[in-house]
Design a protein that fits this description.
Chain B: It comes from Alloyangia mangrovi. Chain B: It is found in: Cell membrane. Chain B: One of its GO terms (molecular function) is ATP hydrolysis activity. Chain B: Belongs to the ABC transporter superfamily. The complex is a heterodimer of chains A (221) and B (240). Chain A has one domain: Orthogonal Bundle (MetI-like fold), CATH 1.10.3720.10. Chain A has 221 residues and is mainly alpha-helical. Chain A is built from 10 helices and no strands. Chain A starts with 7 loop residues before the first helix and ends with a helix. The radius of gyration of chain A is 21 Å and the shape is elongated. Chain B has 240 residues and is of the alpha/beta class. Chain B has a single domain, classed as Rossmann fold, CATH 3.40.50. Helix content of chain B is 38%, strand content 25%. Chain B is built from 9 helices and 10 strands. Chain B has a 6-stranded mixed beta sheet, sandwiched between helices. In chain B, strands 2-1-4-5 form a 4-stranded antiparallel beta sheet, covered by helices on one side. In chain B, a hairpin with a 2-residue loop joins strand 1 and strand 2. In chain B, helix 5 packs parallel to helix 6. The radius of gyration of chain B is 18 Å and the shape is globular. The two termini of chain B are 33 Å apart. Classes of the chains: A mainly alpha (221), B alpha/beta (240). At the A-B interface, helix 6 and helix 7 of A face helix 2, helix 3 and helix 5 of B.
C-alpha cells in the first residue's frame, strides 16, 4: 500500500503552468461575479416589479439555480444548448453556467436583504420627489448590498471552486483543467492535486480577507 | 393653497376618511388633533399622493393630486412631509441625507446642494453634525435632520405627521422649537400632533378629527377655550 514514492520536485516543476491556470480560474470567477451581481439586481427588480410573468421568469431562474447541481447548469450551457446548434467554447460555457448559478443565489440573498430594510425608506425617498427607481438606486440598493455583502463573499468563493467543474465541458486552461492534463502526462496524481488544492485554498483565503478589508472601507456606518 | 373636497378613503371595510372638506391657505399653520384612528395621519399621506383616495378631490395650487395625468414626483417637490419615524437614510452622512434629493431630483450640482443643505442643517441646529452618520444621532436630532431634508427641496408646503410621537419626552422640545421657528417664518404647514400646548401656540386654526370626520375647526382660542361640539369637549377633557 505504501510503496508510493512522492516526487514533489517533478510536480513542483509544473507550478508555473498551474499558476497560469489559476489566473484563468480567477478570470472566470471574477467575470461570473460581476455579471452575476448585475443579473441578480435585475432579477430582484423583476420580482419586485409587480408583473406576474416577469416575476415568474425571475423565480424560475432562482429555483433552477438553487435546486439543481451546478454541474448540470454548466453542462446545459455547453452540451445542452449544443443540441439546438448553439456552440460555445468551454470557457464561455463555464462562465455562463457559473454566472447563472451566481445570479440565482445572489438574487435570493438580495431578497432576504430587502426584507431587512423597512418599507418606510422607500416612502421617505418617494416623498422627496424621487421616482421608484431612484429610491431603489440611491436608498435601497446601497443598504441591500451591505447586508448581502457577506453572502456575496461566500458566493465568490463558491465561484472559484465551481470552476473545477469546467473539466466536464472540456475546459483545460483553468487551474483544475491544467492540473488534470498534467496528471495525464505525469501520473503524479497526489502531488499535483495537492498543489492545486493549496492554490485554491490560498486564493479563497485572499478573497475572504480582501472582502473584510473592503467592507471596512466601503461601509462607513 | 391646498383644497380638500369631500375626500373619502377606506382601508378594506374601514372607512377612515368620511368626506373631508378643508382649505389651507398659503402661509397658514393648521394643526390637526384627534384620537388615534381618527384619519388625521391618513389625510396627510393623501395630500402628497402617497395614498390613493376613493372619491373626492385634493388640489394643491390647482393641481389635482390624484388625477392620472399628475406628475406626483414633480408635485411632491413642493410638498415636504416628515413622519413620526424620521426614516434617516442610514448609509449616508447627515449632509448626504439632505443633499440626495436636491441632487438627484432637482439635478443640482454637489456644491449647490451642499450649500443649501448646510444652510438648512444649521437652521435646525445640526451645523456641527454634517459628517456624522444618523445612527450616531439622538432621535430628536434625526427628526430635525429629516425636517432639514424636506426643507432642502424648498417646498411651498410642509406636512408634519406626529413628528414628536416617537421621541423620548426630553427630546420633544427641540423638535417643537424647530416647527415653531418654521411657522414664524411663514411656512405653510399642516401639523398632525398630540401636543396640545404646541397646537394652541403656533396655529392659525386647529381642526379636530373624530372617527374620519372633521368634527370641528376654528381658531385655537375657540377650540381650546370654547369648543362647540360635545366630542371635542370630551377629547380635550381626556387629554388634559
Amino acid at each position: 500500500m505504501f510503496d508510493y514514492t512522492f516526487q514533489w520536485k517533478q510536480a513542483m516543476a509544473k507550478l508555473p503552468q498551474m499558476l497560469d491556470g489559476a489566473v484563468v480560474t480567477m478570470e472566470v470567477a471574477v467575470l461570473s461575479m460581476v455579471i452575476g451581481i448585475l443579473l441578480a439586481v435585475v432579477l430582484t427588480l423583476l420580482r419586485l416589479s409587480g408583473s406576474r410573468p416577469l416575476a415568474a421568469i425571475a423565480t424560475t431562474w432562482v429555483e433552477i439555480a438553487r435546486n439543481t447541481p451546478a454541474l448540470f447548469q454548466i453542462y446545459m450551457a455547453h452540451f445542452g444548448v449544443a443540441s439546438f446548434g448553439i456552440h460555445f467554447s468551454p470557457f464561455v460555457s463555464l462562465l455562463i453556467g457559473i454566472t447563472f448559478n451566481n445570479a440565482g443565489y445572489l438574487a435570493e440573498n438580495f431578497r432576504g436583504a430587502l426584507k431587512a430594510i423597512p418599507e418606510t425608506q422607500t416612502r421617505a425617498g418617494r416623498s422627496l420627489g424621487m421616482s421608484q427607481l431612484q429610491a431603489f438606486r440611491y436608498i435601497i440598493l446601497p443598504q441591500m448590498l451591505r447586508i448581502a455583502f457577506l453572502p456575496m463573499t461566500n458566493q465568490m468563493v463558491w465561484a472559484i471552486l465551481m470552476t473545477s467543474l469546467g473539466v466536464t465541458v472540456g475546459m483545460n486552461t483553468d487551474l483544475y483543467g491544467v492540473t488534470q492534463d498534467l496528471n495525464a502526462l505525469t501520473f503524479r496524481t497526489f502531488e499535483l492535486f495537492a498543489i492545486a488544492a493549496v492554490i485554491f485554498y490560498v486564493i479563497t483565503k485572499i478573497i475572504t480577507l480582501g472582502a473584510r478589508l473592503l467592507a471596512a472601507r466601503l461601509f462607513r456606518y | 393653497m391646498i383644497e380638500i373636497q369631500n375626500v373619502r378613503k377606506s382601508f378594506g371595510q374601514m372607512e377612515v376618511l368620511k368626506g373631508i372638506d378643508l382649505t389651507v391657505a398659503k402661509g397658514e399653520v393648521l394643526t390637526v388633533i384627534g384620537g388615534s384612528g381618527s384619519g388625521k395621519s391618513t389625510l396627510l399621506t393623501c395630500i402628497n399622493g402617497l395614498e390613493p383616495i376613493d372619491s373626492g378631490k385634493i388640489l394643491v395650487d390647482g393641481t389635482e393630486v390624484h388625477a392620472k395625468s399628475t406628475n406626483l414626483n414633480k408635485l411632491r417637490q413642493k410638498i415636504g412631509i416628515v413622519f413620526q419615524q424620521w426614516n434617516a437614510f442610514p448609509h449616508l452622512t447627515v449632509l448626504e441625507n439632505v443633499t440626495l434629493a436636491p441632487r438627484k431630483v432637482l439635478g443640482m450640482s454637489k456644491g449647490e446642494a451642499e450649500a443649501i443643505a448646510e444652510k438648512q442643517l444649521r437652521h435646525v441646529g445640526l451645523g456641527d453634525k454634517l459628517k456624522t452618520f444618523p445612527t450616531r444621532l439622538s432621535g430628536g436630532q434625526q427628526q430635525r435632520m429629516a425636517i432639514a431634508r424636506a426643507l432642502a427641496m424648498s417646498p411651498d408646503y410642509m406636512l408634519f405627521d406626529e413628528v414628536t410621537s416617537a421621541l423620548d419626552p426630553q427630546l420633544v422640545g427641540e423638535v417643537l422649537e424647530t416647527l415653531k421657528m418654521l411657522a414664524e417664518e411663514g411656512m405653510t404647514m399642516i401639523c398632525v400632533t398630540h401636543e396640545m400646548a404646541f397646537a394652541r401656540d403656533v396655529s392659525n386654526r386647529v381642526a379636530y378629527f373624530h372617527k374620519g370626520v372633521m368634527a370641528e375647526i376654528g381658531a385655537p382660542d375657540q377650540i381650546f377655550g370654547a369648543p362647540q361640539e360635545e366630542v371635542t369637549r370630551q377629547f380635550l377633557a381626556s387629554v388634559r
